[in-house]
Design a protein that fits this description.
There is one protein chain. By secondary structure, the chain is of the alpha+beta class. Helix content is 35%, strand content 18%. The protein is built from 19 helices and 23 strands. Strand 8 and strand 9 form a beta hairpin. Helix 1 packs antiparallel against helix 2, helix 4 crosses helix 10 and helix 6 packs parallel to helix 16. The longest helix has 30 residues. It is globular.
């Protein structure tokens, strides 16, 4: 590996441009693309660093190089999975004790998954047949001008669009406060798509406050991930004698997630299969017949003056209630109507219930359509496409590591324990939106695997298209996955705060009248912090609390506005952290090789993690 002797010059250049070197493109048109990926036969070109970060890379490549600066091995201390400072936290009396992977535990987790998936397929507990015909929301109440009193006999009636995690927990929170609830999920089945969900400590506390039984069931069904180390690794050999040498797979930052949780008196983070979460919430958190599938809310009318709303489903069916909550995902139809967005803003809005339960042909069409939908919906393309799968594989470092990111230029590889000797992994690659993989052919029946094996080519293979030889752990998980199980999608999120001067939206960003948004419909975020579903859960708790204090329907707009104002600042900060983290990760390798700045940057990242987790793991939201 060659290294620049003038890295100090690069350091001065970086200081002069400041943090703007690592901002992200706001749209795919701002990406700079490389033609080097044509050898991978990928439809859609890979993007490179741009702006100041791109200039710095170009400067470094044009300066004289001296090989001896890269000679030597990385430090042995960066190869240790469990450092002493993490061990000390995990050895605290109130910290969870690691239960080693074993055959019985694996069987329990996988059997529970299969049972939950079967329940979903059988529509167990769903609103079908006679329950559907006699559903309370089919009959409008006679409400006088000015609204009505909310009583035990005539409680608030709440419609929830979307049956993913946000919708289920919102409905459970409202039901716990005595409200009538109904969930409308557009998917044709509650498909077991999307892999396990990490329910972090803050989200567990919200669920515990909503429904103790649901909390207990989730903890019992989940796999604790807070009992091991998490952190960042370098994907391939990098560095120099002036900034530090790192071999492929060396740790850059290591931390625990249990310490901040214990400080706040919160339970340990667990990972639970998506169908199991659905099964638990439907069985223990909601009345039978609450969830209606094949039902998409297409539009609504806010009757005003405390008289409620009338929602119209895609098939023309009318639903009557006092409140409508849009928990229908990033391409929310409810949000489209609420904010009067363009006609194409409410696209394929399937929630976490079945948001990606589509085949590759549909996925290719969706990738192209989503570019147009995002423009109408005002969503930000992150600059990344994401490949993801749940590998039925016992990871080689499973007993020490629960979560890790392998960092590289243009891409990074994330893996986390999925429970039951399975690993959930994500490969994020910086490239313009709308790209798709070639269709399978007899010569290459597995195009996604082919690409990923080249993108993360291991040590001794000659490397990826840029010549970087990756830590074998990435291919360990990729090779344990099947072509059919790997899903690809472009990643979009939203502005941390509304980019508007509309006074009503500024005072009540996610609510107007009798309608409110929550979860991804309100604040979609990058997956780096694993907080998307967790913040949605916090939303659900707060929404239930505010609506639970309503004694007259004329007070609903005030309650929804208060919910919105309370939640928007915290979620904006979390969104910002997630965006910044993702944007920095693909230029991490650039920063860490710069004398003085590189070691300082790594040290500050290490020191900042407990404080970031303390902010996330608050018992109050």
């Amino acid at each position: 590996m060659k290294v620049l002797i003038q890295d100090a010059i690069t350091f001065l250049a970086l200081v002069s441009v400041g943090a703007s070197a690592f901002t992200s493109p706001s749209s795919s048109s701002q990406c700079r693309v490389s033609t080097s990926t044509t050898e991978l036969n990928v439809i859609g070109k890979q993007a490179e660093s741009f702006g100041p970060a791109g200039l710095i890379r170009k400067l470094k490549s044009s300066l004289p190089q001296v090989e001896w600066l890269a000679d030597g091995q990385g430090s042995d201390r960066n190869k240790v999975n469990m450092p002493d400072y993490v061990k000390r936290v995990l050895e605290q009396p109130n910290a969870p004790r690691r239960e080693a992977e074993n055959e019985e535990r694996t069987r329990q987790i996988r059997t529970r998954f299969e049972e939950a998936a079967a329940d979903a397929a059988a529509l167990k507990g769903m609103c079908v047949g006679e329950k559907d015909e006699q559903a309370w929301w089919r009959t409008p109440l006679e409400i006088p001008q000015g609204g009505r009193e909310v009583t035990k006999d005539e409680p608030l009636r709440v419609l929830v669009a979307g049956g993913g995690l946000a919708g289920l927990v919102t409905a459970a929170a409202c039901h716990a406060k005595g409200m009538k609830v109904a969930i409308f999920e557009q998917a044709s089945s509650y498909a077991p798509y999307g892999g396990p969900i990490q329910i972090q400590s803050n989200a567990l506390r919200a669920i515990q406050r909503i429904n103790q039984k649901c909390f207990e069931e989730l903890v019992a069904a989940g796999t604790v991930t807070a009992d091991r180390v998490s952190g960042l690794k370098i994907g391939y050999r990098k560095g120099n004698k002036l900034a530090g040498l790192y071999d492929a797979g060396d740790w850059l930052v290591r931390f625990d997630t249990i310490g901040p949780a214990l400080e706040a008196g919160l339970p340990a983070t667990v990972v639970v299969d998506r169908p199991v979460i659905q099964q638990i919430m439907v069985k223990h958190g909601l009345p039978e017949g609450t969830v209606r599938i094949k039902s998409r809310i297409d539009s609504y009318e806010d009757l005003g003056d405390g008289k409620g709303i009338v929602a119209t489903l895609e098939d023309g069916t009318k639903a009557y209630a006092d409140v409508l909550v849009g928990a229908d995902g990033i391409w929310s139809q409810v949000r489209k109507v609420l904010h009067k967005l363009g006609d194409g803003a409410g696209g394929f809005a399937a929630s976490g219930a079945a948001g990606g339960a589509i085949d590759d042909k549909e996925a290719r069409k969706l990738a192209r359509d989503t570019v147009k939908i995002a423009e109408q919906a005002g969503r930000r393309f992150s600059g990344f496409t994401c490949y993801a799968a749940l590998a039925p594989h016992r990871a080689s470092n499973i007993e020490d590591v629960s979560y890790q990111i392998l960092l590289g230029e243009k891409k990074y590889f994330v893996s986390t324990d999925g429970g039951g000797e399975r690993q959930q992994w994500f490969a994020l690659i910086r490239e313009p939106a709308g790209g798709v993989d070639p269709e399978p052919t007899p010569e290459d029946p597995t195009p996604k695997l082919t690409r990923l094996r080249k993108e993360f080519a291991a040590v001794g293979s000659g490397g990826d298209p840029d010549g970087n030889e990756w830590d074998p752990f990435a291919l360990e998980l990729i090779n344990a996955s099947s072509e059919e199980d790997i899903k690809r999608r472009d990643l979009y999120d939203g502005a941390p705060l509304l980019a508007t001067f509309n006074p009503q939206q500024l005072l009540s960003p996610w609510a107007k009248g009798h309608v409110a948004l929550c979860g991804d419909a309100a604040h979609p975020m990058m997956p780096n912090l694993g907080q998307g579903g967790c913040q949605a859960t916090e939303d659900s708790y707060r929404l239930g609390e505010e609506l639970g204090q309503v004694s007259h329907t004329k007070d609903i707009p005030g309650a929804l506005g208060k919910y919105s104002r309370i939640r928007v600042v915290r979620t904006a900060i979390v969104q910002g952290f997630a965006q910044l983290g993702s944007d920095l990760l693909v230029d991490f390798d650039l920063m860490m090789t710069i004398p003085l700045l590189g070691p300082f940057f790594l040290k500050m990242t290490q020191l900042s993690m407990p404080w970031i987790l303390r902010f996330l793991y608050t018992p109050e939201f």
